[in-house]
Design a protein that fits this description.
158 residues; mainly alpha; 74% helix
């Protein structure tokens, strides 16, 4: 017979690591959303663009969330009409970029263009991650607080 303590230790160890990666994913996305209004301050010259910040933040958050899901073994996608319509729009844009005259420019753009299919894909991942990570009133309140703080900093910077 198996020892019950061994079974519970094996089951709880991955979920603890999964929870850690899930929290890291949440804080990366929260930090990205918090820093974004600061990049709209005129005269705030940084070598990094807004699109690059969004891309790095969303891709890092998505990567840590995927690691969390793989460790946890549980994968759930919210079934909302907004995500369905955003996914349909994403598919249409990706198909249009593949069938354009210059598919590489249409998909990648010329340096983090906001209208390229790659950037639209990153923005869709951001929407997807926000619908997963910002659930619950405490997390939504924290998100609103950081957005307001970033907006106040942006307003004071003008």
């Amino acid at each position: 017979m198996m020892n019950m303590n061994t079974i519970s230790e094996v089951k709880t160890a991955p979920s603890t690591k999964a929870g850690l990666f899930n929290r890291i994913s949440y804080y990366i996305l929260l930090g990205t959303v918090s820093l974004l209004p600061i990049f709209f301050i005129p005269g705030f010259d940084i070598e990094i663009s807004k699109s690059f910040l969004i891309s790095i933040g969303v891709l890092l958050s998505f990567s840590f969330w995927m690691i969390s899901r793989l460790l946890d073994g549980y994968f759930s996608i919210p079934k909302t009409p907004i995500l369905y319509s955003a996914f349909a729009t994403l598919v249409a844009i990706v198909l249009a970029s593949f069938f354009s005259e210059v598919p590489t420019i249409s998909f990648i753009g010329s340096g983090f263009d906001i209208g390229s299919a790659g950037n639209i894909l990153v923005l869709f991942l951001g929407l997807f991650m926000a619908s997963i990570l910002f659930t619950g009133s405490k997390r939504k309140t924290t998100l609103y607080f950081f957005i307001i703080i970033g907006t106040i900093i942006c307003a004071l910077g003008r």
